[in-house]
Hints:
This protein is α+β, with helices and mostly antiparallel strands. The protein has a single domain (about 1-80), classed as CATH 3.30.1330.30. The protein is about 45% helix and about 20% strand. β2, α3 (about 40-50) and β3 form a beta-alpha-beta unit. α2 (about 15-25) packs parallel to α3 (about 40-50). It is globular and about 30 Å long. The model has no long low-confidence stretch (mean pLDDT about 90).
Amino acid sequence: MLDESLKKAQKVxxxxxxxxxxxxxxxxxSVYVAKDADSRLLRPVLEMCRxxxxxxxxxxxxxxxxxxxxIKVGAAVAAILES
Length: 83
């Protein structure tokens, strides 16, 4: 499911800061969070998702999420932006 969504996505952001900014601007279509990421770091993003009524999709590991987005390091959170 994650791979199919990414193949169709034209605009993506990776990381806490970029995802937070995109959520704040209302540009996010969907959010992906890694289950093994520090919950203290994810809390603000998850609260913004709740406020914006976006259901975050959980991914098993940060490494898996980073790899799906084409980066060589793990990612705690990533988002697909609206076109």
